[in-house]
Amino acid sequence: MSLVFSGENLEPDGPGSSEVFFTPDKKAYTEDNILIYNILVYNIPRRLKDADISRYFSKFGMISEVRLVYDKKRSRRSSPTVGFVNFVEPESAYRVLQKFNHRIRGSRVGVKAGSSLNQPDAEKAYSQEKCGTQQKKAKTPNVATKLGLNMLSLNDDCLEIICGLLGLRDQVRFARVCNRFQVIFQMLSRRAYKRFEFRKTIGMTLWEIWDFFRFAGKNIEEVAGEVPYVNRERIITFIRTCCVNLKRITLFDSEMESDCLKKLLRSFPLLRELHLHTCDVDDLSIQYLQYLTQLESLTLSVNSAITGKFMNSLVQLKVLNLYGCRNIQTSNMVEICRSMPNLKSLDIRRCKRLSPIFFDTLAEHCQQLEILKMSCPDFPYEHITLLPRLKHIELLLRTSVLVSPTQIFFKLVENKSQQLETLKIYGANSINPQEISSISKLEKLKSLYCTNNQAIDDDALRKLCQLEQLEELVIKNSGNITNEALIKLLRSCKHLRHLNIQFCKKITCEFVLEAINILKDRKGRSQLPFVLFVYGTSIDKYGISEFQKYTEAEKESLIKIVFEILTVDIRIPSNDIYDLWDSDDWYLLYSYR
User: Based on the domain organization, do 239 and 273 belong to the same domain?
Assistant: First the structure.
């Protein structure tokens, strides 16, 4: 497979050019140490043709080829946007790059070094690197070679361990040495790079990134993260070319041209999951999703240009996340729900334009919906409790709502007390004691989040003792609770395995010691430890370690205490956010997982 690309998707300031080059001996070299013969010319005026480019640059040296790349978004009659000039001698390219001002027939054009992949010596350099200098050294072998003490004498398992200890850039260089090392790296990539994060390419050259995808691409099932801005479209081309078994794409902060996104999506018609967070996706881009006939999970969070048009064609979707898409229209949203009979999870938090019509018809159209995440509007929305399969609900509340949220909890008890398993409530001081009484009657509840609420006190915990199926409780920043009420809760909720009491100042080491006694007395206890998050409480890491009872329980995996601050439950910064609705950091609620 040739290393030299044809120039597809090249841009003047991006993928087809390099601003990094070195001139140690009156010759220019790319960042990969490849001798530069090829230069990129950009900002070419409409009136200039191939002959004009060739005539001007021939004064720097003999030219082997001039190639103009037309902008595919315009007609063929339009002028080229960029061009490539290949010189016969590298000194000619060096002289071009040393001059900062180039004018052709009175018009100024820009010049940059072509990337390593565009240099005619790229394939030759790669072959030399692959073979190494072993053949030359074979004529005068050293003592280690005579004794067979070289890396090639190691078995594949040892070589794979060595390769695994290297950083990604060095792993790629390792794979370039010879065919055997390349196979070793491919074996490693089957387990190490099923999920590949773009941050790992930091510090790598474009050529090294290309070689990584070329070697490991067929083993990659998911790519995730922010695609580097520099060379973004070329990297997308690498993914399209090499990652033939891709099942999941997770991108954020990765705006790309619509034509590039279209090509990416058309390359993976069997894609199962697509997550585009803050990628400036618009309604036009949504039309490209029609190629993904097997798509089951779609995230388009924080893309404000989306209105919901063209999404009703995605009839096969089971998971839809529209978090932060603030311009979603009610009519489009109703049509989306009507056309997706298999929808099981829907996230409409921060979708501010939805009207009562949508909430009134939600239960009618979403018969299979089990997970609903929503911001609570200023009008009654209790119809959501009529969703026949609802098991998980997340409510983003605010204290200024005109309609008291008490009705929603009362209706949940009335319609879902024997079904609801997860309830997550976000918003500072957004519930009151009466609402807690309603919550305590949700008999099948397994997971309850209620953070930053002063209504969670000892009386509230006594009410929550009725939740006998509770497994997870997050009540961080509930400053009025005490050891006694929390111990009573632990005795009553015998399935509780995860407790977050961060910033509950009154909780002390005595609670931990009594909790250990309760955990030991549990019948048929789980092999997994009881996990307790205590940052901001009066439980001191060094103080609790002085108790032998605790150290023994920890060794037995009976309990695990997390002393560091935990924010992954609602993705808030470490200084804590007390009113999530009004905070400028509300977007941190979104989880990339």
Answer: no
